[in-house]
Amino acid sequence: MPSRTIIQTTSVVVVIALVAASLFVGGYNISLGNLFTDPAAAEMFLISRVPRTLALIFAALAMSISGVIMQLITQNRFVEPTTAGTSQWAGLGLLVMLIVFPEAPPMLRMVAATAFAFAGTAVFLAVLRRVAVRSSIIVPLVGIMLGAVVGAITTYLAGTFNLLQAMAAWRSGGFSGIVRGFYEPLWIVAIVAVVAFIVANRFTVVGLGRDLATNVGLNYDKVVLLGVTMVALSTGVSTVVVGFIPFLGLIVPNIVSMVRGDDMRSNLPWVAMIGVGLLLACDLIGRTIVAPMEIPASVVLGALGAAVFIVLVLKQRRTVSA
Fold it and tell me: Predicted confidence band at 319 (pLDDT cuts at 50, 70, 90)?
Protein backbone atom coordinates (compact mmCIF):
# COMPACT_ATOMS: atom_id res chain seq x y z
CA MET A 1 0.00 0.00 0.00
CA PRO A 2 1.50 3.40 -0.94
CA SER A 3 2.77 5.50 1.98
CA ARG A 4 0.43 8.39 1.16
CA THR A 5 -2.59 6.09 1.42
CA ILE A 6 -1.35 4.80 4.77
CA ILE A 7 -0.95 8.37 6.07
CA GLN A 8 -4.41 9.37 4.87
CA THR A 9 -6.09 6.28 6.28
CA THR A 10 -4.34 6.75 9.62
CA SER A 11 -5.37 10.40 9.67
CA VAL A 12 -9.04 9.50 9.18
CA VAL A 13 -8.93 6.94 12.00
CA VAL A 14 -7.16 9.37 14.37
CA VAL A 15 -9.64 12.19 13.70
CA ILE A 16 -12.61 9.86 14.29
CA ALA A 17 -11.01 8.77 17.58
CA LEU A 18 -10.47 12.41 18.58
CA VAL A 19 -14.12 13.25 17.86
CA ALA A 20 -15.20 10.33 20.05
CA ALA A 21 -12.81 11.39 22.81
CA SER A 22 -14.11 14.97 22.66
CA LEU A 23 -17.64 13.67 23.21
CA PHE A 24 -16.76 11.56 26.26
CA VAL A 25 -13.82 13.31 27.99
CA GLY A 26 -14.64 15.94 30.59
CA GLY A 27 -15.40 16.75 34.19
CA TYR A 28 -18.84 15.09 34.08
CA ASN A 29 -18.60 11.30 33.75
CA ILE A 30 -20.30 10.27 30.51
CA SER A 31 -19.74 6.86 28.94
CA LEU A 32 -21.52 4.63 26.45
CA GLY A 33 -22.74 2.64 29.44
CA ASN A 34 -24.56 5.46 31.23
CA LEU A 35 -25.43 7.53 28.16
CA PHE A 36 -28.56 5.42 27.52
CA THR A 37 -29.39 4.62 31.15
CA ASP A 38 -28.73 7.88 33.02
CA PRO A 39 -31.04 10.76 31.96
CA ALA A 40 -28.70 13.34 33.54
CA ALA A 41 -25.73 12.03 31.55
CA ALA A 42 -27.76 12.04 28.33
CA GLU A 43 -28.89 15.61 28.99
CA MET A 44 -25.34 16.78 29.71
CA PHE A 45 -24.19 15.00 26.53
CA LEU A 46 -26.70 16.86 24.37
CA ILE A 47 -26.44 20.24 26.11
CA SER A 48 -22.67 20.48 26.44
CA ARG A 49 -20.54 17.76 24.83
CA VAL A 50 -22.18 17.64 21.38
CA PRO A 51 -22.30 21.46 20.99
CA ARG A 52 -18.69 21.79 22.17
CA THR A 53 -17.46 19.16 19.72
CA LEU A 54 -19.42 20.70 16.84
CA ALA A 55 -18.07 24.15 17.74
CA LEU A 56 -14.54 22.76 17.64
CA ILE A 57 -15.18 21.18 14.23
CA PHE A 58 -16.71 24.34 12.75
CA ALA A 59 -14.02 26.64 14.21
CA ALA A 60 -11.33 24.38 12.79
CA LEU A 61 -13.02 24.42 9.37
CA ALA A 62 -13.29 28.22 9.50
CA MET A 63 -9.65 28.88 10.27
CA SER A 64 -8.14 26.08 8.14
CA ILE A 65 -10.07 26.93 4.99
CA SER A 66 -9.51 30.66 5.54
CA GLY A 67 -5.79 29.94 5.75
CA VAL A 68 -5.80 28.14 2.40
CA ILE A 69 -7.70 30.96 0.70
CA MET A 70 -5.47 33.68 2.17
CA GLN A 71 -2.31 31.85 1.13
CA LEU A 72 -3.52 31.51 -2.45
CA ILE A 73 -4.71 35.12 -2.69
CA THR A 74 -1.41 36.49 -1.36
CA GLN A 75 0.75 33.73 -2.91
CA ASN A 76 2.45 33.35 0.45
CA ARG A 77 2.48 30.24 2.70
CA PHE A 78 2.80 32.25 5.93
CA VAL A 79 -0.41 34.24 5.62
CA GLU A 80 -3.60 33.29 7.46
CA PRO A 81 -6.26 35.28 9.36
CA THR A 82 -4.13 35.82 12.48
CA THR A 83 -0.95 36.77 10.58
CA ALA A 84 -2.87 39.04 8.21
CA GLY A 85 -4.62 40.97 11.00
CA THR A 86 -8.07 39.69 9.98
CA SER A 87 -8.81 38.15 13.40
CA GLN A 88 -7.61 41.28 15.21
CA TRP A 89 -9.93 43.43 13.09
CA ALA A 90 -12.81 41.08 13.87
CA GLY A 91 -12.04 41.51 17.58
CA LEU A 92 -12.07 45.29 17.17
CA GLY A 93 -15.47 45.05 15.47
CA LEU A 94 -16.78 42.99 18.36
CA LEU A 95 -15.46 45.55 20.85
CA VAL A 96 -16.97 48.48 18.97
CA MET A 97 -20.34 46.73 19.06
CA LEU A 98 -19.97 46.15 22.83
CA ILE A 99 -19.27 49.88 23.26
CA VAL A 100 -21.96 51.42 21.06
CA PHE A 101 -24.65 48.73 21.42
CA PRO A 102 -23.98 46.59 24.53
CA GLU A 103 -27.31 44.75 24.28
CA ALA A 104 -26.82 43.77 20.64
CA PRO A 105 -27.85 40.17 19.82
CA PRO A 106 -25.08 37.74 18.79
CA MET A 107 -26.08 37.93 15.11
CA LEU A 108 -25.57 41.71 15.05
CA ARG A 109 -22.18 41.29 16.74
CA MET A 110 -21.23 38.79 14.02
CA VAL A 111 -22.21 41.27 11.32
CA ALA A 112 -19.98 43.91 12.91
CA ALA A 113 -17.07 41.49 13.39
CA THR A 114 -17.40 40.29 9.78
CA ALA A 115 -17.53 43.87 8.43
CA PHE A 116 -14.39 44.83 10.35
CA ALA A 117 -12.64 41.61 9.30
CA PHE A 118 -13.48 42.35 5.66
CA ALA A 119 -12.20 45.93 5.96
CA GLY A 120 -9.04 44.79 7.74
CA THR A 121 -8.26 42.16 5.11
CA ALA A 122 -8.83 44.73 2.38
CA VAL A 123 -6.42 47.12 4.13
CA PHE A 124 -3.81 44.33 4.37
CA LEU A 125 -4.08 43.56 0.65
CA ALA A 126 -3.97 47.27 -0.23
CA VAL A 127 -0.79 47.74 1.83
CA LEU A 128 0.77 44.69 0.17
CA ARG A 129 0.23 46.22 -3.27
CA ARG A 130 2.35 49.20 -2.16
CA VAL A 131 5.15 47.13 -0.63
CA ALA A 132 8.08 46.96 -3.05
CA VAL A 133 9.76 43.94 -1.43
CA ARG A 134 7.25 41.05 -1.18
CA SER A 135 9.42 38.20 0.02
CA SER A 136 7.89 35.23 1.83
CA ILE A 137 8.99 36.72 5.17
CA ILE A 138 8.07 40.38 4.59
CA VAL A 139 4.42 39.70 3.67
CA PRO A 140 3.39 38.01 6.96
CA LEU A 141 5.45 40.57 8.91
CA VAL A 142 3.34 43.33 7.35
CA GLY A 143 0.19 41.52 8.48
CA ILE A 144 1.54 40.85 11.97
CA MET A 145 2.47 44.52 12.39
CA LEU A 146 -0.96 45.69 11.19
CA GLY A 147 -2.57 43.18 13.56
CA ALA A 148 -0.41 44.43 16.44
CA VAL A 149 -1.52 48.02 15.80
CA VAL A 150 -5.19 47.00 15.70
CA GLY A 151 -4.69 44.87 18.83
CA ALA A 152 -3.16 47.83 20.66
CA ILE A 153 -6.10 50.05 19.67
CA THR A 154 -8.50 47.32 20.83
CA THR A 155 -6.75 47.02 24.19
CA TYR A 156 -6.75 50.81 24.68
CA LEU A 157 -10.46 51.09 23.91
CA ALA A 158 -11.27 48.07 26.09
CA GLY A 159 -9.39 49.66 29.00
CA THR A 160 -11.03 53.03 28.45
CA PHE A 161 -14.54 51.55 28.46
CA ASN A 162 -13.86 48.98 31.23
CA LEU A 163 -14.23 46.02 28.84
CA LEU A 164 -10.85 44.38 29.35
CA GLN A 165 -12.42 41.31 30.95
CA ALA A 166 -14.78 40.80 28.02
CA MET A 167 -11.91 41.06 25.54
CA ALA A 168 -9.74 38.74 27.63
CA ALA A 169 -12.45 36.10 27.22
CA TRP A 170 -12.31 36.67 23.45
CA ARG A 171 -8.52 36.36 23.34
CA SER A 172 -8.56 33.11 25.35
CA GLY A 173 -10.34 31.24 22.53
CA GLY A 174 -11.79 28.67 24.90
CA PHE A 175 -14.61 26.21 24.31
CA SER A 176 -15.59 25.50 27.92
CA GLY A 177 -18.58 27.84 27.75
CA ILE A 178 -20.03 26.42 24.53
CA VAL A 179 -23.49 24.95 25.10
CA ARG A 180 -26.62 24.25 23.07
CA GLY A 181 -28.18 27.48 21.80
CA PHE A 182 -24.82 29.29 21.57
CA TYR A 183 -22.78 27.59 18.85
CA GLU A 184 -25.43 27.31 16.11
CA PRO A 185 -24.30 30.38 14.09
CA LEU A 186 -21.15 28.42 13.28
CA TRP A 187 -23.21 26.36 10.81
CA ILE A 188 -22.54 29.29 8.45
CA VAL A 189 -18.99 27.98 8.24
CA ALA A 190 -20.28 24.73 6.71
CA ILE A 191 -21.84 26.77 3.89
CA VAL A 192 -18.55 28.63 3.38
CA ALA A 193 -16.72 25.29 3.22
CA VAL A 194 -19.06 23.99 0.51
CA VAL A 195 -18.67 27.19 -1.54
CA ALA A 196 -14.88 27.00 -1.12
CA PHE A 197 -14.87 23.47 -2.51
CA ILE A 198 -17.04 24.46 -5.49
CA VAL A 199 -14.80 27.40 -6.49
CA ALA A 200 -11.52 25.81 -5.36
CA ASN A 201 -10.09 25.57 -8.88
CA ARG A 202 -10.48 29.33 -9.35
CA PHE A 203 -8.57 30.02 -6.13
CA THR A 204 -5.85 27.64 -7.35
CA VAL A 205 -5.52 29.67 -10.57
CA VAL A 206 -5.49 32.94 -8.59
CA GLY A 207 -2.63 31.48 -6.59
CA LEU A 208 -0.56 31.37 -9.80
CA GLY A 209 -0.70 35.17 -10.12
CA ARG A 210 -2.80 37.92 -11.65
CA ASP A 211 -1.20 37.74 -15.13
CA LEU A 212 -1.69 34.00 -15.58
CA ALA A 213 -5.22 34.10 -14.12
CA THR A 214 -6.19 36.93 -16.47
CA ASN A 215 -4.64 35.17 -19.48
CA VAL A 216 -6.81 32.08 -18.94
CA GLY A 217 -9.94 34.26 -18.79
CA LEU A 218 -10.46 34.40 -15.02
CA ASN A 219 -11.79 37.59 -13.41
CA TYR A 220 -8.95 37.92 -10.89
CA ASP A 221 -10.40 40.79 -8.84
CA LYS A 222 -13.80 39.10 -8.59
CA VAL A 223 -12.31 35.85 -7.25
CA VAL A 224 -10.13 37.75 -4.76
CA LEU A 225 -13.19 39.67 -3.56
CA LEU A 226 -15.07 36.39 -3.09
CA GLY A 227 -12.15 34.95 -1.15
CA VAL A 228 -11.84 37.97 1.13
CA THR A 229 -15.59 37.84 1.79
CA MET A 230 -15.46 34.14 2.71
CA VAL A 231 -12.45 34.66 4.99
CA ALA A 232 -14.09 37.66 6.69
CA LEU A 233 -17.36 35.78 7.21
CA SER A 234 -15.67 32.69 8.66
CA THR A 235 -13.37 34.74 10.88
CA GLY A 236 -16.10 37.11 12.05
CA VAL A 237 -18.52 34.36 13.05
CA SER A 238 -15.90 32.20 14.77
CA THR A 239 -14.51 35.25 16.59
CA VAL A 240 -17.83 36.06 18.21
CA VAL A 241 -18.68 32.46 19.15
CA VAL A 242 -15.33 30.96 20.24
CA GLY A 243 -12.79 33.79 20.18
CA PHE A 244 -9.22 33.96 18.87
CA ILE A 245 -7.83 30.76 17.23
CA PRO A 246 -4.20 31.40 16.23
CA PHE A 247 -1.99 29.67 13.66
CA LEU A 248 -4.41 26.88 12.62
CA GLY A 249 -4.71 28.34 9.13
CA LEU A 250 -0.93 28.45 8.90
CA ILE A 251 -0.02 24.98 10.15
CA VAL A 252 -2.59 22.79 8.43
CA PRO A 253 -2.40 24.01 4.79
CA ASN A 254 1.40 23.79 4.89
CA ILE A 255 1.36 20.24 6.25
CA VAL A 256 -1.16 19.11 3.62
CA SER A 257 0.76 20.84 0.80
CA MET A 258 3.98 19.10 1.81
CA VAL A 259 2.25 15.71 1.46
CA ARG A 260 -0.17 16.27 -1.42
CA GLY A 261 0.98 19.30 -3.46
CA ASP A 262 -0.87 22.57 -4.10
CA ASP A 263 -4.19 21.66 -5.77
CA MET A 264 -6.78 23.31 -3.53
CA ARG A 265 -9.77 21.19 -4.57
CA SER A 266 -8.08 17.86 -3.87
CA ASN A 267 -6.42 19.23 -0.71
CA LEU A 268 -9.45 20.93 0.83
CA PRO A 269 -11.06 17.81 2.41
CA TRP A 270 -7.70 16.92 3.97
CA VAL A 271 -7.10 20.47 5.15
CA ALA A 272 -10.51 20.40 6.82
CA MET A 273 -9.95 17.00 8.41
CA ILE A 274 -6.41 17.69 9.68
CA GLY A 275 -7.53 21.08 11.00
CA VAL A 276 -10.38 19.45 12.91
CA GLY A 277 -8.07 16.80 14.32
CA LEU A 278 -5.45 19.32 15.42
CA LEU A 279 -7.91 21.62 17.20
CA LEU A 280 -9.64 18.65 18.87
CA ALA A 281 -6.25 17.39 20.08
CA CYS A 282 -5.31 20.81 21.49
CA ASP A 283 -8.66 21.07 23.25
CA LEU A 284 -8.32 17.58 24.75
CA ILE A 285 -4.80 18.40 25.99
CA GLY A 286 -6.12 21.57 27.60
CA ARG A 287 -8.99 19.65 29.22
CA THR A 288 -6.92 16.84 30.70
CA ILE A 289 -3.47 18.05 31.81
CA VAL A 290 -4.80 20.38 34.54
CA ALA A 291 -8.20 18.71 35.13
CA PRO A 292 -10.64 19.65 36.56
CA MET A 293 -9.41 23.08 35.38
CA GLU A 294 -8.90 23.79 31.66
CA ILE A 295 -6.28 25.46 29.49
CA PRO A 296 -7.95 27.10 26.47
CA ALA A 297 -7.32 25.30 23.19
CA SER A 298 -6.01 28.55 21.69
CA VAL A 299 -3.21 28.66 24.28
CA VAL A 300 -2.07 25.12 23.42
CA LEU A 301 -2.45 25.83 19.71
CA GLY A 302 -0.60 29.14 20.02
CA ALA A 303 2.46 27.46 21.57
CA LEU A 304 2.45 24.72 18.92
CA GLY A 305 1.76 27.15 16.08
CA ALA A 306 4.56 29.52 17.06
CA ALA A 307 7.05 26.63 17.01
CA VAL A 308 5.83 25.43 13.61
CA PHE A 309 5.91 28.99 12.26
CA ILE A 310 9.59 29.31 13.23
CA VAL A 311 10.39 25.92 11.67
CA LEU A 312 8.68 26.92 8.42
CA VAL A 313 10.52 30.25 8.30
CA LEU A 314 13.88 28.54 8.86
CA LYS A 315 13.05 25.93 6.22
CA GLN A 316 12.11 28.68 3.76
CA ARG A 317 15.42 30.46 4.40
CA ARG A 318 17.38 27.27 3.75
CA THR A 319 15.44 26.71 0.53
CA VAL A 320 16.18 30.26 -0.66
CA SER A 321 19.85 29.96 0.29
CA ALA A 322 20.30 26.60 -1.47
Answer: low
